[in-house]
Design goal:
By secondary structure, the protein is mainly alpha-helical. The mean pLDDT is 86. The radius of gyration is 19 Å and the shape is globular. The chain has one domain: Mitochondrial carrier fold (Alpha/alpha barrel). Helix 7 crosses helix 8 and helix 7 crosses helix 9. The longest helix is centred in the N-terminal third of the chain and has 30 residues.
Length: 246
Amino acid sequence: MQVTGGSIGSTISTVMKEGSILSFWKGLPFAYGREASYTSIKLGAYAPVRDMMGAGKPDAPFYLKFLAGAITGGVGSVVGNPFDVMKTLAQTGSGKASLGKLVTDMYRDQGIAGFYRGVEVNIMRACVLNATKMGCYDITKGAVVEKTGWKRKDIRTSFTAACVAGLFMTCTVAPFDMIRTKLMNQPTDKKIYDGFVDCLVKSVKGEGVLSLWRGFIPIWARFAPQATLQLLTIDALYTVFGFKSI
């Protein structure tokens, strides 16, 4: 949707016509690489960084929780950027090429720097996403506990907080997601945009401000269950390894 500008229905139809139901899993190996690098850092390091900053208490200032999320998200995005670039190319028109050819073409045309195209907006996106995700989740859990009397580790508390965090994540991250997709989806042998600002200005001038939130529903549909599973899992792992739960 972000690349073609089509609706949910037309995009699904187009993807099906170009291949089969398996087309919805294009770029899966790169997606695995991204999650193993980016997500493991942004989630796994949150509690240690938060506690190191003195923001581990429920009544700690919310901005410290957001800052801890931004730091771990930013670091994780730098590590995972190459996988993000290749995943984006694999999922769009270039996805017809083999995974090996995508990597080879990128290195031939742009060298190592090509794998870090869009890294500036990816860092901004990750900082905003993880700050919103972990901050809202952390704060919402406290509010739920106060209103319902449930425990912070209660699965009902975690599920409710994760759903709320997923909505706010979509609101704050969608514009960065849109710009990132455009920057990363440029052909390996061609440069369409000169960075974040140029892409933002051209997008708003050509398609309007609301185009930055294109794909809102699919993004939320991805974030809500993904955030719920990730946050429930990380809470359980924190307990196992002796960290305070979020």
